[in-house]
Amino acid sequence: MDLSKKILEAIEAKQSKEHRKYIGCSSIGNPCNRYLWYAYHNAPSIDEKPEIKISFEIGKRLEDMILDYIEEAGIKVIRPHETNHWLLCRDSEINEFQGHMDAVLIIGHDSVVLEIKTAKSSRFQAFVKNGLKAWSEAYYAQLQSYMGMRGYKRGVMLAINKDSSELHHEWIDFDSYFYNELRAKAEAIHLADEPPDRINKNPTYFICARCKYKDTCFFPGLGD
Fold it and tell me: Is this model's pTM higher than 0.85 or not?
């Protein structure tokens, strides 16, 4: 029996095709507005490999472990749960712009958004060296979105090195100007009847080449 193959086949069969009709905080920082429009409108996409699903699931399970450690360190943690609607966040005026936080830390009288990410060593070191916004504007935008929607003034990004289990964090202050730009972007995506311009006209451009909507975007009659 090819056990590995059996596992991957089971994951492929289990993958959900459920569409979430909203513009997510985790994706609003994507540099391509056309990608966001396709995601919002449930455009045909390339199926993710089951290995990607495994990596995502590992990351989610590691989050719980890290939250346990934070509690052991004496910090109060609010975790996603059915009773708090899985820490749902939604813009007060643009209901289609929403997401779910990983957790909220209670530090003194302050509520602080916590976002947890895993990264291979090279990516982790880039975070350590360059800081959150330069490392990933998408992650930075995600934190800013949560803070803006909940009225929190501070957030923290905690990264785990998948190769060495090192931890690194960065505290982030709320930037209202940046958040308003994200809100305007989400509203434009929501109101657009047609997909926005491509970020690049060449399908081999590095962002386009790895995009799951590449076929829909560049094949005539599908993306236009």
Answer: yes
Domain annotation covers residue 223 = no
Q: How many domains does the chain have?
A: 1
For 42, list phi and psi in degrees, rounded to 5: 55, 45
Q: What is the pLDDT of residues 46-70, one digit of tens each?
A: 888 888 889 888 989 999 999 999 9
| Backbone phi and psi for residue 48, each to the nearest 5 degrees, phi listed first | -70, 145
What is the arithmetic mean of pLDDT over 133-159? 98
Task: Name the nearest CA neighbour of 44 among 220, 202, 215, 203.
Answer: 215
- How many CA atoms lie less than 13 Å away from 16 in the CB half-sphere? 3
Domain with residue 137: its CATH number is 3.90.320.10
Domain span at residue 17? 3-191+202-218
Q: Which tokens go with 172?
A: 């982030």
In the chain, where does DSSP find H-type helix? 3-14, 33-40, 50-72, 121-130, 132-135, 137-150, 176-191, 206-209, 214-218
Report the alpha-carbon angle 19-27-145, nearest 5: 115
Determine contact, residues 139/115, Cβ cutoff 8 Å.
yes
